[in-house]
Amino acid sequence: MEYFVDSGDKPAFVKYPMISVFLLAFLFILIAIEITLSAVNRVLYQLLTPEEKAKKEYEESLSFKESTWFKELMQKLTKTSPIEKEGELLMDHDYDGIKELDNNLPPWWVYLFYICIIFGVIYVVRYDVLGADNQEMELKKEMAQAKIDVEEYMKTAPDLMDEKTVVLLTDEPSLAAGKEIFTTNCAACHRADAGGQIGPNLTDDRWILGGGIKNLFHTITNGGRDGKGMISWKGTLKPKEIQKVASYILSLQGSNPKDPKEAEGEVWVDESAPINDATAVAPKTDTTQVKK
What we know:
disordered C terminus, mainly alpha, two-stranded antiparallel ribbon, elongated, 292 residues, Cbb3-type cytochrome c oxidase N-terminal domain-containing protein, 11 helices, single chain
């Protein structure tokens, strides 16, 4: 009942009282059947002749391996010959006084051997002739599909976002929500215009712990430098909220607020950004070399 009934963290018979009633009724039926069968067996036993009673008592006194049905079952599974007929099965081979009996192979072994042959033929045809996926290929495909499923799930599960999967938001609703979060939680240290006060200026091109959406998400989530950085916000803000406020902060780059705090940190360059060939600086040529 526990397997088939979804009862959450409580036992099924506790959460659903009708299950207890059903189990009690089922137990009552089993007891009634047992009493009925016992009564029928006693009546049938009284109808037996003395010889049949003696035979029945003898069979009930036998051990499990000595019972008739067990012997018949083993005979069907092994097809062994009685020990009295071993002389007929004795072969001419003699190895240092050790002789061999020509017994039949057990039927279970023979059937298993035939099943292995059929399985081997099907296996060769399927995997070597028809080219079906083997276990290694099936694993690779399942892992690739699982990766796709995880990525799709992460897109619709923002609370599972981290610095590896976060992306920059540029739509107005997200930036507006990020601004509200910033004003409520961050403006006290960074000023409402992000020009910096206790905390650093967030509008210039210098960053203490790295710029970009991934670094900024990591910093807000886990906090700044030990002992002198800001606190971790992962216990207060959800990952989706951290993504929005980080995107809003990055949208303030170059806004030049009034009386900004002096720049701190280093200029951060996104190494993953594509290089513009047109703006690449050509290497300088040494014009002092003597032509040969």
